[in-house]
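Reference record
================
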Amino acid sequence: MRFPTTASDTATFRPRFAAPSISSATSPPLSSKRGRTFRALKEIRDRLKLATETDLPVVEAVAEFLAYKATRVKARQFANLTDQLKRFAVDFGDKPISTVTTAQIESWLSSLRSRRNPDKLAETPFLSPLSRNHYRATLHGFFEYASAPARALCPRNPISHLEPEQV
C-alpha cells in the first residue's frame, strides 16, 4: 500500500504494521510491571551473591584448579603450576579465596625469595622481576578459573589490574 497523498486517501489509509492500541482495561498498571521487574532483578542479584560468596579456602581452590589442569597441560607446565600454587597456598592457607585482595597478592609477590641453597647463604635473595612475573601469570590463570561464572569461587580476578614488572 502506498502512502496517502490526498485528503480522501488519508481517511482510508491504515498502516500495514500498526501498533496495537493500548487501553488501561487490558494492560496492568505500570507500577505492577515495574514491581515484578524489580523483584526479578533482586532474585537474580541474590542468586549471584550466594554463588560468589563461597568461603572455599585457598588450599581447596588450588587443589581443585590443579585437578582441572592435570589433563589439560603437559607434565613440565603442570609441575611449574603445582610448585608455584603450592607456595601460594602455604602462605594463604585457610583464608577464603573470595577475600584475597590485589594489595595482599602484590605484597606477597614482592616478598618472594629464592629457595636455592638456603643453607649456604646468610640471607636468600629476592626473586627476579621475571620470576615474579611468572608467579603473577600463574596466579592470574588461577583466579581467572576461580572467578569464571560457572564456578564463581571469587567475585573478580584480583590480579587483572596488577601490571607485570618491567624486566
